[in-house]
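Researcher: Quick test of sequence recovery. Tokens follow.
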């Protein structure tokens, strides 16, 4: 068997591009495969100021393509729904070089030390799959610092009184205050809450040959016009390619992980289309395969790869692959003020408190609370208007015209309590345009998640009112499947193959050369945006792999 590469990485997103850079800079030959395109703002972004991942009804400014990529969603009554990427319950993630980091807002939170010890801290609720991580905050702290400095985070390292200890400050100062933060800071002070400027993967000063944020407001959901938002596509991928040891293959689908007659991993099988659209299969061999395709697609790829040794999918002899799917519930409160409180200058998010992340009476965990990125008027109309206001007609138009600049919001991602029944399977009937079984999504998070979300909603409402809002509104959360852009947990790391899919470095149990490197590894998903944790784990685990190759 001819070995083409030292490592093949499937998925050029938040983790995959980091792994590629670490391995290539260590002298390893790498093939990085991405099903999406390699896009730039100059080529695509300047023409599209509507489609984004917060307004999915209009489609996306990244992949996946709406046609040919269905999933099946099983509702609480057992009903089957074939859904497309732009429809509810698909739980889409960006398919593009850079993954979600190409269009994210860039909140760069470290998980709290207790986030790694949720079961030890709170106990395990009946019916849940809540566990501790096999590593601690202390194990990951140096890698958090590396991610912050290698990719670029702005913030105040001394601002968060509730955070874990840190070895060094952020490499850039925080973003500036705005009218919203001035109001919310006064309200927080009245309630005795500590506040600070959230950390962001955004340049507040020119850095690494790229400019600073120009405050355009096209932040979350869009590529950055100034290239001042730091994703892995404009930080780590260029480093990987500059070595001459990393090949990037875009718009390419991996059919399955390739195995030999004994079930050992030997590379990947890819599908390529000729000029006439005819698909052909090609096998590419490597010493190691790293799956970085996101929690749903990584699990799907493992389930698609069946051998005599593992007839239910790679690493799945104990029925763990695809379980514990989670994301984040996002309780949100809107507040109407008498005077303008937002100016639509980006990034928008400018103030946060972590006082409710832990230590709350009667609930498990909590959430970080912050204001939000600049919101498009059409997104406010779609998802932020009061329930008693008509969506169409003069009343809606007058409300939007008179009040858009006078509305602020507070929101935060709550600690979800995972359930083993919330999972990814292969659907037995539906195929994608390549003939592969599609992902079937089913189950619900644990009811404790709803209790925590309701608690956080009340705290956000109190903060908004204390800040001077004359009217507030929000929506209670309901028990449901959760995944979305913060999808995680389907190949959780652990200490034993009976209850996990990989070890603490992402190596799949039963295989010496198959790794998972994305949020699939997360046993729990924290009360923060998870991307910095994904990045820190990628640096840590890729260095381990480089030392083994």
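Model:
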């Amino acid at each position: 068997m001819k070995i083409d590469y030292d490592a093949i990485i499937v998925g050029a997103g938040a983790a995959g591009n980091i792994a590629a850079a670490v391995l290539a800079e260590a002298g390893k030959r790498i093939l990085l495969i991405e099903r999406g395109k390699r896009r730039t703002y100059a080529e695509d972004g300047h023409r599209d100021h509507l489609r984004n991942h917060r307004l999915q009804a209009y489609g996306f400014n990244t992949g996946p393509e709406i046609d040919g990529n269905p999933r099946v969603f099983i509702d609480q009554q057992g009903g089957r729904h074939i859904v497309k990427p732009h429809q509810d319950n698909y739980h889409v993630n960006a398919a593009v070089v850079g993954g979600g980091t190409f269009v994210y807002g860039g909140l760069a939170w470290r998980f709290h030390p207790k986030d790694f010890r949720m079961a030890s801290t709170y106990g395990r609720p009946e019916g849940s799959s809540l566990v501790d991580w096999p590593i601690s905050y202390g194990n990951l702290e140096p890698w958090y610092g590396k991610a912050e400095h290698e990719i670029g985070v702005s913030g105040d390292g001394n601002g968060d009184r509730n955070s874990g200890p840190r070895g060094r400050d952020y490499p850039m100062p925080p973003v500036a205050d705005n009218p919203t933060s001035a109001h919310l800071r006064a309200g927080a002070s009245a309630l005795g809450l500590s506040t600070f400027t959230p950390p962001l993967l955004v340049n507040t000063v020119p850095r690494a040959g790229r400019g600073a944020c120009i405050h355009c407001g096209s932040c979350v959901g869009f590529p950055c016009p100034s290239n001042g938002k730091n994703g892995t596509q404009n930080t780590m991928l260029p480093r990987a390619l500059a070595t001459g040891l990393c090949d990037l293959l875009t718009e390419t689908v991996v059919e399955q992980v390739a195995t030999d007659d004994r079930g050992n991993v030997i590379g990947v099988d890819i599908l390529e289309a000729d000029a006439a659209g005819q698909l052909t299969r090609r096998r590419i061999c490597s010493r190691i395969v790293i799956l970085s395709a996101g929690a749903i697609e990584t699990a799907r790829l493992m389930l698609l790869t069946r051998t005599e040794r593992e007839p239910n999918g790679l690493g799945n002899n104990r029925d763990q692959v695809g379980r514990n799917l989670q994301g984040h519930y996002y309780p949100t409160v809107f507040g109407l003020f008498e005077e303008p409180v937002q100016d639509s200058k980006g990034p928008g998010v400018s103030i946060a408190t972590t006082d409710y992340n832990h230590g709350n009476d009667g609930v498990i965990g909590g959430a970080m609370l912050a204001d939000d990125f600049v919101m498009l008027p059409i997104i406010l109309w779609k998802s932020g208007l009061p329930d008693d206001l008509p969506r169409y007609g003069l009343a809606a138009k007058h409300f939007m015209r008179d009040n858009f600049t006078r509305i602020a919001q507070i929101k935060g991602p709550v600690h979800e309590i995972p359930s083993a029944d919330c999972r990814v399977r292969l659907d037995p009937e539906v195929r994608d345009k390549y003939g592969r079984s599609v992902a079937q999504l089913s189950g619900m998070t644990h009811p404790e998640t709803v209790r925590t979300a309701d608690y956080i909603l009340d705290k956000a409402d109190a903060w908004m009112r204390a800040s001077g809002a004359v009217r507030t509104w929000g929506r209670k959360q309901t028990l449901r499947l959760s995944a979305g852009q913060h999808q995680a947990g389907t190949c959780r790391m652990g200490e034993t193959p009976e209850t996990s899919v990989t070890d603490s470095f992402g190596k799949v149990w039963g295989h010496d050369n198959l790794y998972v490197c994305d949020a699939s590894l997360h046993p729990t998903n924290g009360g923060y945006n998870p991307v910095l944790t994904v990045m820190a784990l990628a640096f840590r685990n890729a260095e381990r792999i480089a030392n083994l190759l």
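Residues 447-466 form the longest helix (20 residues).
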